[in-house]
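The instructor's notes for this session suggest beginning with a concrete chain rather than abstract definitions. Hand out the sequence below and ask the class to guess, before any prediction is shown, which regions might be ordered.
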Amino acid sequence: MSIGNPQNNKLELLKYVNEIDNKSYVLVKLFQRENNHWKLTFKDTVNADGLAKIAPEIKDYNSDKLNDLKFCSKIGANLANSMNVVLIYSAKTESLKKIGRGWNLTYSEKLKMFREKYRASTIWASYYKIDKDRLIKTFEIDLGATSELVKEYDGKGKLIKTLQTNRDTINYELPKVKHWLREWTIKETLN
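After discussion, reveal the predicted structure:
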């Protein structure tokens, strides 16, 4: 798989079971071409489970025109949720950096954000932007059976506003983009 600079980088993902502890892991290796040989520049092992398929997604998440990586490491007990890990390629270090993990992470090209969505007795979604090689939470929605909880965060991940309302009397005083995210979350979750 190609990541970073496709001519000079090679990625290997391997899921295996450790015979000593009988646990599953995903091994991530990044190689860089050096004098017609492949030199290992990054290696990391991530806890996994036996059910999850790695399902790698390679695309540019931080708008630097270099491919990054997202993959699945675990499946939730209800089989409706998967834990995803995100690694960003750094041209400066010519290596990968793990910037976060979350449930059912999807990337929106339009918003330039990740959405984490979890299905349980309630449904919640959080929105993260990439800032200096880490994920920063910007917005969170919890769709309960009778009420909704909306949390807004500043650019550093600090909570700045919490609104809770009865489902019958929804009237948020949120910026238009935040209200659109709420509507999108409801639409995407209920479909």
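Then share the key points. The radius of gyration is 19 Å. Confidence is low (pLDDT under 50) at residues 169-177.
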